Structure formats: C-alpha cells, structure tokens
Amino acid sequence: MNIIISNASGKPIYEQIVAQIKQLIMTDVLKEGDALPSMRVLAKDLRISVITTKRAYEELESEGFIETVTGKGSFVAGRNKELIKEERYRQIEELLSKACDISKTSGIAYEELVDILSLIYKEA
User: Which of 7, 8, 35, 40 is nearest to 21 (CA)?
Assistant: First the structure.
C-alpha cells in the first residue's frame, strides 16, 4: 500500500491517510477482506506516530470502510455499494463546489460552466 504524506498539505496527516485508503478501496485496489498493514507498521513506514495511524483507522472503521479484528488486524470491510456511491457523490460535490466558486469569482457564467463540464465528461 503506497500512501504519500504531504507536509505542505493543509490537511492533517490522519485525514491524508483516510482519504488515500478510501480511494484505494473505492477504486478496487484494495478489495473486501484485504489486510491493511498494522498501525505500528504503517506508522513506521510513514515515519509518523502510532496515535496518528490509530486515529485514521478508527475513522475508517467508523465510516464502514474497514473492520478491525482484535489480535488479527484491520481488513477492508464488506463492500457496501451505497456507502461507496455516497462517498463518490460527496467527492464530486466537493470538487464541483470548488469549480463553481472559481467560475463565480472569474466571471464565468453558469451556462459556460455547464458547457465545460459537458465537454470534459464526454471526453473522459
């Protein structure tokens, strides 16, 4: 599992870990039942505190992305398609919100923004 921590990011380290693991799960790089590295191993690999990895794993577990089995470790949870879909909607809304903010401050009309989105969507 390749997680990259950016000190230049405005996000706390645990949030960076959570976001990247979610992305790995949502794109099927990590599949149901796959084991995650232990909190200690991940902390050592990333050169961060175990407390930080613990916080990330706890958040992932509370959101239903992973399951932790005492004495065995943490694993990718059974795929809840609605949970994954809802997370993707949230990500899209966040990105589109940023695009709307930029377009408003740049004087780009709503119709132009829709045209841009339509072109991008058709080319992807």
Answer: 35
